[in-house]
Amino acid sequence: MITLKNIQTEVDTGYLYKVLAAHEADPHVAKVFNDMSGIEYSHALAFMKKHGLPESQMPKPSGRAKALEFIGKIIGYEYVLGVLLDTEKSISTAIAGARKKTGTESSVSDTAHVQILRNILNNHKEISGSALARFEKRHRSVGGNALRAAVLGGNDGLVSNFSLVMGIAGASSGQSEVLLTGLAGLLAGALSMALGEWISVKSSQELYENQMQLELEELETNPEGEEKELALIYISKGIPEVQARQMAAEIIGDKERAHEMLVKEELGINAEDLEGSAMEAAITSFLLFALGAIIPVIPFFFLSGINAVLVSAGFSAAGLFIIGAAITLFTGKSVWFSGLRQVFFGLAAAAVTYGIGSLIGVSLGG
User: Fold this and answer.
1) 143 or 37, which is more confident?
2) Would the pTM of this model clear 0.85, i.e. be above it?
3) DSSP per residue, 285-321
4) How many C-beta atoms lie closer than 10 Å to residue 3's C-beta?
């Protein structure tokens, strides 16, 4: 079972690198992605041969890989690259853990595929410093933050309001009380999430802007020192010294671009992150939370009593399963495992609050 899972992972990553290559404007970087795709497929073949499986049984790209390709079309292929890098890091960690348990020595092949990718870049001397710098920016950027926030925001709204609604339903048999509480919980939670997101984005922007201004002043007063610093950063990342110094000299000649790269490399800040609107983030957070929170409330618009409770639980269970399935886009776990796990914990939380509500209702009634 583990072998088949490993083969599927290699096939999926190879397929997704092909997708990245097909949508990469820079031909040299596209070649790197194609090379990575070849490496992944060769790993899959090696697994097949090791366990006596014919090449004709090589699995096709999974539904998860196809879903990631579709998401890339919508929100950008940088997200796909981010997921691949997360996957490679997980594989490297798993190999290291397995070797530690079995007491076997580490191997060069255990190195994360991210390092292989960097080595390929270093060996392609025709890749300009600017192209490599652009790739490094994408390499560190996980474009799935928006999608991840959407899934987690919907999950927070659904689980919290589902539990709240069940608690009130247990304490009171009145339809209007449950409906009012559910809508109040939706509004209060969504507003709280929106305000928290607005404060988070705004404060981060203000902090980054201050740090960027300090970096600009350093660049203006000591450009030679900043060039050496940038070169050292590249060298520390494994880039050959001659190439690193060439890249730094190329970048430092353009003040605006040099400032952008120094901010990114030294401070770990992407200037594009400052372009986001705090209000837009707040509204998005409000809507995502509300979308999840409305699900358990819907049945109480039309039903009351135990019927409303059961339908609400059914709606919420379906929503929880969908959220759990969506989470597998980041984790690579089984859809059924993640979906049913989400349903179990969500229903358990709701059952506890329903029970507490019932006890409180009996106590107050007595």
Assistant:
1) 37
2) no
3) HHHHHHHHHHTTTGGGGT--HHHHHHHHHHHHHHHHH
4) 12
